Amino acid sequence: MAFKIVASQCTGCSACEPECPNVAIYEKDGVFAINPKKCTECIGYFDAPQCVAVCPVDNTCIIDPAQPRYQASA
Ligand code: SF4
Ligand code: SF4
Fold first, then answer.
1. What is the rounded distance in angstroms from the CA atom of residue 51 to the CA atom of residue 6?
2. How many CB atoms within 10 Å of residue 34?
3. Residue 1: CB within 6 Å of ligand 1?
4. What span, in angstroms and rounded, lies between the C-alpha atoms of 57 and 9?
5. What separation in Å is there between the alpha carbon of 51 and the centre of ligand 1?
6. E-assigned strand segments in the chain
7. pTM of the entire structure?
8. Residue 39: CB within 6 Å of ligand 1?
9. With a 6 A CB cut-off, is 10 part of the ligand 2 pocket?
10. Do 17 and 26 contact (CB within 8 A), yes or no?
11. Ligand 2 within 6 A of 46 CB?
12. Non-local CB neighbours of 27 within 8 Å, separated by 6+ positions
């Protein structure tokens, strides 16, 4: 599970925060971050990750390879 935000590229615009269906995005020290325990990659809500869709900075909301891919519960 989980996307992450590249903190060094995040402008702190906050566009992503209200779009997350899982309330996984939070602000910390002026930039935003994703709680990997809450992120479902938008599976079950949208066809595409909403944080990626709304972020104005390319490649800032990205899959976190350190986290296992989200598996929807049966
Ligand atoms: S991929 Fe979806 S669930 Fe995960 S942080 Fe982005 S908006 Fe939230
Ligand atoms: S939309 Fe992108 S630039 Fe804006 S707060 Fe979210 S991650 Fe940062």
1. 12
2. 22
3. no
4. 7
5. 6
6. 3-5, 25-28, 31-34, 61-63
7. 0.92
8. yes
9. yes
10. yes
11. no
12. 12, 14, 17, 33
